[in-house]
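[agent] plan:
  1. take the single chain provided in the ticket
  2. run structure prediction with default settings
  3. attach structure tokens to the ticket
  4. add a short note for the reviewer (M.T.)
[agent] executing step 1
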Amino acid sequence: MHKRATLGLVITGALALTALAAPAAQADDKYGNIKITSVSVNGGKAVVVGAKAKKTITLKFTVTDNSGHRMATAYLYRGANIDTADSAASPSKDPITCKKVTSTKSNCTASFTFTPNRNAINSVAGTWKTWAIAQAKDYDYVQKDNLKSFKVLRAAQLAGANASPEPVAKGATITVTSKLTRANWNTGVNGALGGQPVQLQFKKAGTTAYKTVKTVNSASTGAVSTTVKASVDGTYRYVFAGTSTTAGATATGDTIDVK
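[agent] step 2 finished; step 3 output follows
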């Protein structure tokens, strides 16, 4: 009975939250045979947020209990736990929407929106977690401090590759350039991303696969440039693998005609 009374306080508090608030920290807890399974954040992909546009993602999970589902809610956050989080995103609807599949199983869905310069600032890029609680009709409940970890990343961009001169004589030197930038959530613009390894790749005409030719570092201005010897017709491009806080990027390729 003590656990059920405590649950009532937790759920009441969660339902009373404002859009900018977050639930009090709680360790993982469970009463009865209720389960949360099949958790997916943004379809299993990293959440990539640009400099200006809002990014709305979906959290999905399944609640199972022999008495059936009663309610559920969830929050996304960054930090050791939700009480000490440096940033959090609340669902657009709370409690979240759950649809009955069978008498014992419901599928739950929640939408979250990341807004640059509001709840998405540069310092909170990286690993985020998912706090959730679900209650059954017989008052069984389960609370998880982290259902699933996921990445929230600053979007990166590589300008279309430019190989010159064109056309070029076989054996001559060509220069391939681009520019690497990334979203600045604090200012709402894209800024230069320097000191990052970027791969120059080449795809021979008539083939489908790119092969890495060399790796170069972007300059402090974000400029990427290197030289290669022209041998056959084909397409050059640059690829940035990304970092723990920044998404990867691929430049549009530039095709050369070797005479």
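[agent] step 4 note for reviewer: The mean pLDDT is 89.
[agent] ticket updated
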